Amino acid sequence: MPAYPSGHMYxxxxxxxxxxxxxxxxxxxxxxxxxxxxxxxxxxxxxxxxSAYSSETRAWGATTSVHVDNFFEDRVSLxxxxxxxxxxxxxxxxLKYDLSRHRLSVIGTPGDFxxxxxxxxxxxxxxxxxxxxxxxxxxxxxQQEVGTTIRWAQHRTIELETVLPRRYRxxxxxxxxxxxxxxxxxxxxxxxxxxxxLNSRKVRKVGERGDYRNxxxxxxxxxxxxxxxxGRLSPP
Length: 236
Description:
The chain has about 240 residues and is mainly beta. The protein has a domain at about 115-220. It is built from one helix and 17 strands. Strands 1, 2, 3, 4 and 5 form a five-stranded antiparallel β-sheet that branches. The longest helix has 5 residues, at about 225-230. The protein is globular. It starts with 8 loop residues before the first strand and ends in a 7-residue tail after the last helix. The relative contact order is 0.10.
């Protein structure tokens, strides 16, 4: 892959080339399939540049840019609504890269939600979850009518004191991950790492406290049949 110049800070993602047309089940697309690499960086003047590399053309596409107020937050990107999203420091804005138009834009959030974790909403759009003043806030973007401005709506609020055991109510904590398949939030607190099931509101401790910024939960492990059949991997 041709080199791409690096800025002051950078982020990116690797996507299946068929992510937008429903032509792939994403179970084995990493084994020889076409892919797209999206690379974004920001310089010291807070100008973000972005470009996409295609394995089919073996070249980087045109570069697009936009000015931002803050650098990238130490979070993974989120694919939702046909765009990649990158959280910016301070929690007041999110960088959006439109995958079809190859354009950058900045989305304002409804407040100061530093340390938020982005999530895909039930309708496939953008959302985020954050802990603030002892409460878990879940916000999603909603569009009332076709052609109208998309606005943020507070989807849900949960007071941590109502779901945590009494001995774990001393610290507010920070959201460090979200598992979309199980609708669960990972929270790092003084007492350890906890996972909250948003459906049942049950909480359980899953690890000791550490300097964690991100958790990347995976739901399953897939062994391609052709790799198992030729002896490179043993089937389960």
